[in-house]
Amino acid sequence: MFDQISVVQQIGLTVLLVATVAWVVGLARLLRRDRFEIAVWRESRRAGAVPAHLDGIPRQSVPHPIERVDLTEEEHAAFAGLVRRLSETR
């Protein structure tokens, strides 16, 4: 192969080259698979019209009576302000 380097260096270079090619092929396959999964995920989000920040939260159809809390007007306003402030930072 090369006259200036030893056989051990040639073997090391070959092993490094094969590892690099295997890594590039594996990365390309991984990215291609992820691109397909992301496309499927986006389509399911469009169909369900679920906001992005609520994807991981399980849905409840009706709150449990024990978990229901009636808020005063001040508490309701404070909660609305908190939600506004958190949504502005995103």
From TrEMBL:
Keywords of the record: Membrane, Transmembrane, Transmembrane helix
Q: Which residues cross the membrane?
A: 12-31
Q: Which domain of life is it from?
A: Bacteria
Q: State the protein's name.
A: Secreted protein
